[in-house]
């Protein structure tokens, strides 16, 4: 939704959608394989901008690890191949590029170091609502499918004993902690969809990102969607997370990663 607000002004912004996606090249090559998502209305051909790029250069610079490991990158970390890839996208954009990528959250310090002039925005939503949106019931196994968050949990070192929600909630706390240090603004989903005009004035028009309130469909029915558990259950789980990670998830991760791991 937020990405579409800027992308819709095509003479001003050039919108790259999920440039670190693990299936990016396949979806660029064949629009037919892009999954249909009815929850994101009004977005046609999300990967259109990538098809204007030199395909050979795109294929050479994009690396699979971008989507599968090293999700936590800090200011001093080196990732020359990711930097080269993102600079290629920036330099290839005919207008100001807008990146929407979920795999950048824990790399935000590195991004600020490498792209000091970028306007970085944290997109925020209630963790319980995000968790609910990631649930889907398989008709045969009734299993929980949260592969991306689980991969991040394992890679960063936030596996906590108990329900998978514990690790996920720890991720959300870490995201807030890391982003608070470097972002230019924080856009709250609930605030935007319940008062788009006022929100747009404060976060889009006053900072000079847009001149008028965007005309775009918003979905307030996804706020507080019924999830797999009640509020008391979430309260208990979130308290458990706090009791384990303490006041700083970042410091908890650093201390855990200094400990020797079983081979």
Largest sheet, order of strands side by side?
Answer: 1-2
Domain count, please report it.
Answer: 2
Structural class, from secondary structure content? mainly alpha
In terms of quaternary structure, what is this? single chain
Biggest pleated-sheet summary: 2 strands, parallel
The whole-angstrom Rg is 19 Å
Helix content: 40-55%
Please state the overall shape, judged from the principal axes of the Cα atoms: globular
How many helical elements?
A: 12
Low-confidence stretches: 137-145
Strand content: 5-15%
Distance between the termini: 43 Å
Q: What does the average pLDDT come to?
A: 88
Please tally the β strands and state the result: 4
| Run of helices and strands | HEHHHEHEHHHEHHHH
Word description of this protein:
The protein is mostly helical and 263 residues long. It folds into 2 domains: 1-118, no CATH class; 121-257, no CATH class. Helices cover 44% and strands 7% of the residues. It contains 12 helices and 4 strands; from the N terminus they run αβαααβαβαααβαααα. The protein has helices spanning 2-7, 24-29, 55-61, 80-92, 108-114, 127-134, 147-156, 164-182, 189-194, 196-205, 231-245, 249-258, and strands at 13-17, 96-100, 121-124, 185-188. The strands form 2 sheets. A two-stranded parallel sheet has the order 1-2. Helix 7 crosses helix 8 and helix 8 crosses helix 11. The chain is globular, with a radius of gyration of 19 Å. The termini are far apart.
């Amino acid at each position: 939704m937020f990405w579409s607000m800027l992308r819709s002004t095509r003479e001003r912004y050039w919108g790259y959608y999920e440039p670190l996606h693990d299936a990016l090249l396949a979806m660029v090559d064949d629009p037919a394989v892009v999954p249909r998502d009815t929850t994101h209305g009004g977005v046609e051909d999300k990967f259109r901008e990538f098809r204007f790029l030199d395909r050979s250069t795109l294929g050479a610079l994009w690396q699979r690890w971008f989507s599968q490991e090293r999700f936590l990158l800090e200011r001093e970390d080196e990732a020359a191949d990711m930097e080269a890839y993102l600079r290629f996208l920036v330099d290839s954009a005919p207008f100001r590029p807008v990146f929407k990528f979920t795999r950048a959250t824990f790399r935000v310090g590195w991004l600020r170091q490498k792209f000091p002039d970028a306007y970085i925005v944290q997109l925020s939503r209630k963790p319980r609502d995000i968790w609910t949106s990631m649930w889907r019931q398989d008709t045969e196994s009734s299993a929980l499918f949260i592969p991306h968050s689980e991969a991040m949990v394992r890679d960063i070192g936030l596996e906590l004993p108990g329900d998978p929600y514990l690790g996920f909630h720890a991720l959300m706390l870490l995201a807030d902690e890391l982003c608070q240090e470097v972002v230019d603004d924080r856009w709250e989903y609930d605030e935007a969809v319940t008062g788009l005009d006022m929100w747009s004035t404060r976060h889009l028009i006053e900072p000079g990102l847009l001149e008028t309130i965007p005309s775009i469909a918003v979905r307030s029915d996804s706020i507080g969607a019924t999830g797999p558990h009640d509020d008391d259950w979430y309260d208990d789980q979130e308290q458990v997370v706090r009791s384990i990670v303490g006041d700083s998830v970042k410091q908890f991760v650093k201390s855990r990663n200094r400990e020797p791991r079983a081979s």
